[in-house]
Automatic annotation (TrEMBL), chain A:
Pfam families, A to Z: WD40
Top-rank lineage group of the source organism: Eukaryota
GO biological process: mRNA export from nucleus
Record flagged with keyword rRNA-binding: no
Gene expressing this chain: thoc6
GO cellular component, one term: THO complex
Family label: Belongs to the WD repeat THOC6 family.
WD repeat segments: 155-196
SMART domains: WD40
PANTHER family registered for this protein in UniProt: THO COMPLEX SUBUNIT 6 HOMOLOG
Protein name, entry field: THO complex 6
Matches recorded under InterPro entries: THOC6 (IPR042626), WD40/YVTN_repeat-like_dom_sf (IPR015943), WD40_repeat_CS (IPR019775), WD40_repeat_dom_sf (IPR036322), WD40_rpt (IPR001680)
Keywords, in A-Z order: Repeat, WD repeat
From TrEMBL, chain B:
Matches recorded under Pfam families: THOC7 (PF05615)
Family membership: Belongs to the THOC7 family.
InterPro entries referenced in this protein's UniProt entry, alphabetically: P-loop_NTPase, THOC7/Mft1
Keyword Coiled coil listed: yes
UniProt protein name: THO complex 7
Coiled coil: 83-164
PANTHER family: MAINTENANCE OF KILLER 16 MAK16 PROTEIN-RELATED (PTHR23405), THO COMPLEX SUBUNIT 7 HOMOLOG (PTHR23405:SF5)
Compartmental location: Nucleus
Keywords: Coiled coil, Nucleus
Annotated Gene Ontology cellular component terms: THO complex part of transcription export complex
Species name: Gadus morhua (Atlantic cod)
UniProt keyword annotation of Transmembrane present: no
GO biological process terms on file: mRNA export from nucleus; mRNA processing
Primary subcellular site in the record, as a coarse category: nucleus
Length: 330, 281
C-alpha cells in the first residue's frame, strides 16, 4: 500500500510532522531496514535500492508500510529469520522472507505473545540460550524462550519502569537500566541480581538537574556505557567503577561501541563520536532534532551504513561515518 | 552464389578501396596509369627517343610506386611494433591493478588491527586512570607498618602499667594482711586494747565475739573480746579488708579504707613502729 506524498493532504502532512521514529532493525541479509514509529507502523526500506547507482526520490521511500500495533513501536529486533516488534504489552514476530516479498497486506504475524504490561521499552536477544529479554512498564525483565514463545522467568528488582536492556554474552548476563536510576546486572541462569549500580550516586557522573533515569545502556562484555539523566559514562564491569565520563550536554538515548569509537545519540541534533578516553572527537549534524535510535548495519559488507532516526519522519543514512549521505522518508 | 559473392565482395572492395585511397591519393591511379602507359609504349610506333623517354618516365613511375610500397611496409611494421608495445603496457597495468587491490586489502586489515590496538590502549588508559586514583601500595604498606609499630608500643605500655598495678595490689595486700595478722596477734595477746581507728569517726559496729561469732556492740558498752577490751565509741570500727571481696575474708563491708596509725592500749599508745616491731618479733 504505497502512500503518495504528492497529494499532500493536510492530514497527511500533520501525520508526518508529528512522527517520531523509535526503533530500527536491519534484516539478516542486510539489504532492508525496518523502522517503527509512534503511530504503531513499521516501514520497510530497501537499502540496495537506496544505495544503488540509480537511486532516486522513490527509492528513498519505504517499499512496505503496515500497522503492526496499536501503540508506538518502541523496540524492534531481528533474529535470523524473524522481525520482532514490541507494542503495548505484546510482541509480534514477522517473517522476514514474507516481509521482503511484501505479501503482508492482511497477514497476521507468525507469532504474537502477550504480557500484561503497559508498554515494552526494550528487547534484547541472548543468542547463547536463544532467549529474549523483554523489559517494560511493570518494572520487571521477562525472559522468553524463542523456541516456543513461553516466558521462562522474571527478573524483579527495579522500582520503576525499565528503559533499556543489554546482553553481556561472555558472562551470560543481562543488564537493565531503568527510571529508578539503577543499572542491575542479572545472571540469566539463576535469575538473581548480581550487581546493582546506582549511577546517580557517583559524583563524577551525576547530573541532578536532569534526573537519575538511565535511558541508554550497552555493553562490550568488559565495558559498559550508560547514560540518561546522569552523563554518559564508561564503566569497567570487573571493578564496577566509572572510568570516563563524556562531556555531552544532552541526555543520551542510545550508544554503541563501533571499532575503536563510541557512537552516541540523544537530545542534540547530532551523532557524537567519542573516544574511550572520554573525549568527544566529532559531532555530526543530522536532520531530526532529537534522536531516538541509532543502528549500524553489520549484517552486510556492501551496505554498511549507519542510520539514525528520531523526532522526524526522516531517517538519516550515513555511508561514511563522517557525514550524512541522504535521508529515507516515511 | 556468384551474385552473393559479388554483393559481399563489392562492400569489401569499396571498403578496401577507401582504405587504400585514404593513404595517399593516387597510388592506385599511378599503377593504372603505369600499366596503360606500358601497354601504350609496347604498342606505340613512336621514335626511339620518344620511346626511350617514355621508358624512362615509366621507370620513374615504377620507382615512385615502389617507394610508396616501401613506405606502407614500414608503416605496417611500425604498427605491429606499436601494438606489441601497447600489449605490454596493458599487461603491466593489469598487474599493477591487482597488486594495488592486494595492497588495499592489506591496508584495510592493518587499519582494523590498528583500530583494535588503539581501542585496547584506550581501555588501558581508562583503567590506569582509575587505578591512579587509588593510593600507592608501598605507601599504604608503610603506613600499615607504622601503625603496627605504634600498636606494639602501646600494648607494651599497657603491659607495663598492668604489671605495675599488679605489683601495687600485691604490696597493698601484703600490707593489709600484715595488719590483719597483727590484729590477730594483738587479739591473741592478753592485753586490753582500744583499737583506735582513725578515719574521721569510730563506730564499733561489729566485732568478733568469743567463739568467733559476730557480736553487735552497743554504744558505751565495755566487753571483753578475746581479751581485748573494746570501748564502744561512736564511729566506725574499720576491719582491715584483707581479701577485698574474697572468700573467707574477715573483712566486712568497709566504707572507707583502714588507716590505722596506732593502737591505744590501757598502758599507753602503741604507734605503728612499735606494732611493726611486735610483728617482727
Amino acid at each position: 500500500m504505497a502512500r503518495c506524498v504528492e497529494t499532500a493532504s493536510p492530514i497527511l502532512m500533520h501525520h508526518l510532522l508529528h512522527m517520531s521514529v523509535f526503533s530500527q532493525s536491519f534484516s539478516p541479509c542486510g539489504k532492508f531496514l525496518a523502522a517503527g514509529n509512534n503511530y504503531g507502523e513499521i516501514a520497510l526500506f530497501s537499502l540496495s535500492a537506496a544505495l544503488g547507482p540509480d537511486a532516486n526520490e522513490l527509492s528513498q521511500k519505504p517499499i512496505l508500510t503496515f500497522t503492526a500495533h496499536e501503540g508506538p513501536v518502541f523496540s524492534l529486533l531481528s533474529t535470523d529469520s524473524h522481525l520482532l516488534s514490541a507494542g503495548n504489552g505484546e510482541i509480534s514476530a514477522w517473517s522476514w522472507a514474507e516481509l521482503i516479498k511484501k505479501c503482508l497486506c492482511a497477514l497476521p504475524p507468525s507469532l504474537r505473545s502477550s504480557l500484561e504490561i503497559p508498554e515494552i521499552n526494550a528487547m534484547a536477544l541472548n543468542p547463547a540460550d536463544n532467549s529474549l529479554a523483554v523489559g517494560g512498564g511493570d518494572n520487571n525483565v521477562h525472559i522468553m524462550d524463542l523456541e516456543n514463545g513461553a516466558f521462562k522467568s522474571v527478573l524483579q528488582g527495579h522500582t520503576d519502569y525499565i528503559h533499556c536492556l543489554s546482553v553481556r554474552e561472555r558472562a551470560s548476563e543481562v543488564l537493565s537500566g531503568g527510571e529508578d536510576g539503577a543499572v542491575r546486572i542479572w545472571d540469566t541462569r539463576t535469575s538473581q541480581c548480581v550487581h546493582c549500580v546506582e549511577v546517580y550516586k557517583y559524583e563524577t557522573c551525576a547530573r541532578p538537574q536532569h534526573g537519575k533515569w538511565i535511558s541508554c545502556l550497552t555493553t562490550d562484555s568488559d565495558w559498559m556505557l550508560c547514560g540518561g539523566g546522569p552523563s554518559l559514562s564508561l564503566w569497567h564491569l570487573r571493578s564496577m567503577s566509572p572510568t570516563s565520563v563524556f562531556p555531552l550536554s544532552g541526555c543520551q538515548r542510545q550508544a554503541t561501541f563501533y571499532q575503536d569509537m563510541i557512537l552516541t545519540v540523544g537530545e542534540g541534533q547530532c551523532v557524537s563520536h567519542c573516544l574511550m578516553g572520554g573525549e568527544v572527537k566529532a559531532q555530526i549534524p543530522c536532520t531530526p532534532h532529537s534522536i531516538n535510535t541509532l543502528a549500524i548495519n553489520t549484517n552486510s559488507t556492501e551496505h554498511r551504513v549507519l542510520t539514525v532516526g528520531g523526532s522526524s519522519d526522516h531517517i538519516d543514512v550515513f555511508t561514511n561515518l563522517s557525514y550524512k549521505a541522504f535521508s529515507l522518508r516515511f | 552464389m556468384r551474385v552473393d559473392m559479388g554483393a559481399v565482395t563489392d562492400d569489401e572492395v569499396i571498403r578496401k578501396r577507401l582504405l587504400i585511397d585514404g593513404d595517399g591519393a593516387g597510388d592506385d591511379r599511378r599503377i593504372n596509369v603505369l600499366l596503360k602507359s606500358f601497354t601504350k609504349w609496347c604498342n606505340s610506333p613512336a621514335t626511339p627517343e620518344e620511346g626511350f623517354t617514355q621508358h624512362q618516365r615509366m621507370h620513374g613511375t615504377l620507382a615512385q610506386c615502389e617507394f610508396s610500397m616501401l613506405k606502407t611496409l614500414m608503416v605496417y611494421d611500425m604498427n605491429i611494433r606499436e601494438m606489441e608495445n601497447y600489449e605490454k603496457i596493458y599487461s603491466n597495468i593489469e598487474e599493477n591493478i591487482t597488486s594495488a587491490h592486494e595492497k588495499i586489502s592489506e591496508c584495510k586489515k592493518e587499519i582494523q588491527r590498528a583500530k583494535r590496538i588503539r581501542k585496547n590502549r584506550q581501555e588501558y588508559d581508562a583503567l590506569a586512570k582509575v587505578i591512579q586514583q587509588h593510593p600507592d601500595r608501598h605507601e599504604t604498606l608503610k603506613q600499615l607498618e607504622a601503625l603496627d609499630k605504634e600498636l606494639q608500643q602501646l600494648s607494651d605500655i599497657k603491659e607495663n602499667v598492668d604489671a605495675k598495678l599488679e605489683l601495687r595490689k600485691k604490696q597493698f595486700h601484703v600490707l593489709l594482711s600484715t595488719i590483719q595478722e597483727l590484729q590477730q596477734t594483738l587479739d591473741s595477746r592478753d592485753e586490753q586494747l582500744h583499737l583506735v581507728g582513725v578515719c574521721g569517726h569510730l563506730d564499733v559496729r561489729q566485732s568478733l565475739g568469743p567463739g568467733g561469732r559476730t557480736h553487735q556492740p552497743q554504744e558505751g558498752e565495755h566487753y571483753r573480746h578475746n581479751e581485748v577490751l573494746v570501748r564502744g565509741f561512736k564511729g566506725h570500727l574499720v576491719q582491715p579488708d584483707t581479701h577485698r571481696g574474697g572468700p573467707g575474708g574477715r573483712g566486712q563491708a568497709v566504707s572507707t579504707p583502714p588507716y590505722v596509725i596506732g593502737i591505744q592500749t590501757q598502758s599507753g599508745y602503741l604507734d605503728m613502729d612499735y606494732l611493726y616491731r611486735l610483728k617482727v618479733q
